[in-house]
Design a protein that fits this description.
Elements (H helix, E strand, L loop, with lengths): L8 H10 L3 H6 L1 H6 L3 H4 L3 E5 L2 E2 H12 L2 E4 L8 E2 L2 E5 L1 H9 L4 E5 L4 E6 L13 E2 L18 E2 L7 E2 L7 E5 H6 L5 H4 L6 E2 L13 E2 L10 E3 L2 E2 L17 E8 L3 H4 L6 E7 L7 E9 L3 E11 L5 E13 L6 E16 L2 E15 L32 E16 L4 E24 L5 E27 L2 E24 L17 E25 L2 E19 L7 E18 L5 E12 L4 E7 L2 E6 L3 E12 L7 E16 L8 E17 L5 E14 L22 E10 L8 E10 L2 E2 L7 E2 L2 E11 L8 E8 L7 E6 L2 E4 L4 E9 L1
Parallel strand pairs: 3-7, 14-17
Antiparallel strand pairs: 1-5, 2-4, 3-8, 6-7, 9-10, 11-16, 12-13, 14-15, 16-17, 18-19, 18-45, 19-20, 20-21, 21-22, 22-23, 23-24, 24-25, 25-26, 26-27, 27-28, 28-29, 29-30, 30-33, 31-32, 33-34, 34-35, 35-36, 36-37, 37-38, 38-41, 39-40, 41-42, 42-45, 43-44
């Protein structure tokens, strides 16, 4: 056992105790009555919002004021604003901005501001249909139209315009997910720069997203509703969320431990689930596609009899074969949620997700010899299954329950508490190949697991809006806690019959199966963080710091090879972030930032301390740091956003086994330097356009021993391309005989990469083409009915997406066609 510097246990206990106290401040009647509602306080804040389109100016004002705003865009079409400068309350600010426009802002019982036309000469107020743009104006968390988000909360935990965020953030909207026919979260982000979403090929079992060249742990960077999706990347117990349940996906690039604690330095993928709406809507969706893919989905939302309460119920049933012979996918999932507005300033959202995956698709690999290169003049077919159907199993049951509590004390102070509990069980079995046993036969082994995961996380936040002289502050301070426990039992097998991947013939074997070992793995983290977002004229400053206390432990038993072992580690970690941005009045925003991250190692290293004698110990946490410089541009009066960023990223303390030693040390280092370019725009009303380009120079920057004792220093990691690019565009006809027709298409380029960390074999570059065709059948009398056809890998390119080593390479997805019928009513 080893230990970091002494942990202040009294402080830690006090911190954990306070985790359950914050909700009381939002709900105790005495405290609530002691603080006046926000509507009566109208505290003033300083604003310095430049002139521009009235829609953009209102968006920025509502975001900085921290209020909700509903607006029908047609009311603001063509209207300009002189901006807003000086001290204003919320109502006074709206009044100043809307002066002379014929509009006024009205606050409803839920605390949401709405734009309506001013009273006519008869004194009547003409109400217009309204579309809710999201929380804290947002489209920072909630629903939105189109492909271009203007705000995000993922980088700062508060609504912030993307053009004023001093870090790269990309947003995949609900419409983009649907238009591109994404069947997983990994597919939904494939048009985002800097990402590799197929490091294991065409598998759909997990959502792997490797970012900025950091491929290790690429399933451990997923977040749901602002909190880490607490799977265990060292086991098979990594959770997956169906994309039908997701409203938007925010991708934050670079280290982000200041707000989120342990995380990977490449960035994170933050999913936001669909939430209850106060407008009644119902949707049924039916899909059918390649490999007998069948899916039925539903989504119902609206208010209950008490209009302060809204509900949402979404569900998915899926059954499909696979491009690999004999493999199936099945899913039954439901996501209920309820939102309760206790007062104008207090909202509670309860949500749950229940998901059962009886079959979870293919997750195997094939040797480079036969896929990347010809083997005796032959290639292995994409449909070849190297396993054994008698032993193939992957059944996953996962449940999640949680809540989001928000309370606004006044115009200055607000509080939020988010809670999630996760429970998952996995039963798996797989026969896998590990290279050629003879000239044309693959040797095969068996691995199986029975796992149970229990995890919960809670995040408490206080937000303060105030001024100090000429400085306007948005201060967020928080205390979060997470705990994860995974119990695993592994089985193994050898002596299975070899298989010929070219003829399919199975040889003779004498299989031996045995129980390998049991292990209990636990992680506990408490974090205290503070962030100050400061505005001074056109300057935007971001300062953040965090202190974490982490316990990691494991108990390893019933292992015939290594015996019973246990270890635990306690560590304290400080991380920081600083950013600066200047928002020019013409929409240009240059910025620079520095950020840090850390991620504890929950995986044990088997260290040979003497011939045949092993000790098992936990490694030091990996650490990350990044410098980023960039330029963002949002043309005035539009939601278009152009971003170019340069980054210099380092990940240290990678596990490394020196060629002269038989044990691991946390001494390896990886550096990633590159440029990302992204554009999201609507050149005309009927067109959506997304374009991106990525250049990355990634290498092992310290000695890092690989296969056969080769030192990989200076080599590029496997599955990392130097160049990537993508382009997607769609056009909707709104007039003439083709009115209601939508056509779209895209291309994705992935440059050359290495099949192994020793850089002995190149994977060729590949370009994939996608297409979409949709039609709104309400144009021919079928109200609420729409049809869509998606084609992925249109030319049926046969390619290897990536390799983990020369013995494990992964074919990419073959051509896939899917038709979808949607009925909204």
């Amino acid at each position: 056992m080893r230990s970091a510097p002494h942990r202040p246990r009294v402080l830690a206990r006090a911190i954990r105790a306070t985790l359950f106290c914050l909700p009381l401040t939002a709900t105790l009647p005495g405290l609530a009555s002691a603080t006046e509602p926000a509507s009566s306080q109208q505290a003033q804040s300083r604003y310095d919002i430049p002139a521009g389109a009235l829609s953009s100016v209102l968006s920025r004002f509502a975001g900085e004021a921290g209020v909700l705003l509903s607006v029908d865009g047609s009311l603001l079409q063509g209207l300009q604003s002189d901006g807003l400068r000086g001290q204003y309350g919320v109502d006074d600010g709206f009044a100043a901005l809307l002066a002379g426009s014929g509009l006024q802002a009205v606050r409803d019982s839920q605390g949401t501001y709405s734009l309506v036309r001013r009273a006519s000469e008869t004194g009547a107020v003409e109400l217009q249909p309204m579309t809710v743009q999201g929380f804290a104006l947002g489209n920072a968390l909630g629903e939105m139209d189109g492909y271009s988000a203007t705000h995000s909360s993922v980088a700062t935990k508060t609504s912030m315009p993307l053009v004023e965020t001093s870090q790269t953030v990309s947003v995949v909207t609900r419409q983009q997910i649907e238009d591109q026919g994404s069947r997983s979260i990994a597919q939904a982000v494939r048009y985002t720069p800097g990402l590799m979403s197929t490091p294991y090929g065409a598998t759909t079992r997990y959502d792997y997203v490797a970012m900025r060249g950091i491929t290790d742990g690429s399933v451990d960077n997923l977040y749901l509703d602002g909190q880490k999706l607490l799977g265990d990347s060292g086991t098979y117990s990594s959770l997956q969320v169906d994309p039908y349940f997701i409203e938007r996906i925010d991708i934050l690039k670079g280290p982000s431990s200041v707000l989120y604690g342990r995380s990977l330095p490449g960035g994170l993928v933050a999913m936001t689930t669909k939430k209850p709406q106060h407008e009644t809507r119902r949707q049924l969706q039916f899909s059918y596609g390649s490999h007998d893919y069948k899916q039925t989905a539903f989504d119902f939302t609206g208010p209950l009899e008490d209009e302060r309460i809204a509900y949402r119920l979404a569900g998915v049933v899926k059954d499909a074969d696979n491009q690999v012979d004999g493999i199936e996918e099945q899913r039954y999932a439901v996501m209920p949620s309820v939102s309760i507005d206790f007062t104008d300033d207090t909202r509670l959202t309860l949500l749950a997700m229940l998901q059962k995956d009886p079959e979870s698709g293919y997750h195997g690999g094939l040797p480079a010899d036969g896929t990347m290169t010809s083997h005796n003049g032959k290639r292995i077919a994409r449909s070849f299954f190297e396993g054994d159907e008698d032993y193939e199993q992957f059944e996953r049951d996962q449940q999640m329950i949680g809540y989001q509590l928000e309370h606004r004390f006044n115009d200055v102070v607000s509080a939020r508490q988010n809670f999630q509990y996760l429970d998952s069980t996995v039963e798996s079995g797989q026969v896998y190949q590990y290279g050629y046993a003879t000239a044309d036969e693959l040797v095969r082994y068996y691995t199986g697991a029975d796992e149970a995961l229990h995890a919960w996380t809670i995040d408490n936040q206080l937000q303060f809006l105030f001024d100090t002289g000429a400085l306007s502050h948005t201060l967020v301070t928080g205390l979060d806690y997470q705990r994860r426990k995974a119990k695993v039992a592994y089985d193994a097998g050898y002596g299975l019959a070899p298989i010929n991947p070219y003829s399919g013939a199975v040889g003779v074997g004498s299989p031996v199966f045995y129980h390998q070992y049991d292990e209990t793995r636990e992680l506990e983290q408490t974090g205290l963080y503070v962030q100050d977002l400061i505005s001074l004229g056109n300057w935007r400053f971001s300062l953040g710091m965090r202190q974490d206390w982490v316990d990691v432990s494991f108990d390893h038993t019933e292992d015939a090879s290594y015996g019973d072992q246990a270890d635990n580690a306690k560590l304290e970690q400080f991380t920081g972030r600083v950013g600066v941005l200047y928002a020019f009045d013409n929409g240009l925003s240059p910025y620079a930032s520095y950020s840090e991250s850390f991620n504890p190692n929950a995986t044990a290293a088997y260290n040979e301390v003497a011939p045949g004698v092993y000790d098992i110990a936990l490694l030091d946490p990996t650490e990350g740091e990044q410098v980023e410089v960039g330029l963002k541009y949002q043309p005035l009066g539009t939601d278009d956003l152009y971003t170019i960023s340069w980054f210099d990223l380092k990940q240290s303390n990678l596990a490394n086994k020196d060629s002269n030693e038989n044990f691991y040390r946390a001494v390896g280092e990886l550096t990633s330097t590159g440029v990302e370019v992204e554009a999201r725009l609507k050149p005309v009303e009927q067109v959506n356009l997304i374009a991106s380009y990525t250049y990355m120079d990634v290498e092992y920057s310290k000695d890092f021993t690989g296969a056969a004792g080769v030192n990989n220093r200076g080599n590029r990691p496997n599955a990392v391309a130097r160049n990537m690019a993508s382009l997607w565009a769609d056009y909707t006809f709104d007039q003439g005989p083709l009115a209601g027709l939508q056509i779209g298409g895209g291309a994705r380029y992935f440059g050359k990469s290495w099949a192994d960390a020793e850089n002995t074999l190149h994977i060729p570059s590949y370009t994939l083409y996608d297409a979409m065709l949709g039609y709104d059948l309400s144009r021919v009398g079928l109200q609420g009915v729409g049809v869509r056809l998606n084609l992925n890998n249109l030319t049926d390119e046969k390619y290897v997406a990536a390799c983990n080593s020369l013995s494990q390479c992964y074919y990419g997805e073959a051509r896939n066609v899917m038709a979808t019928v949607t009925y909204d009513f």
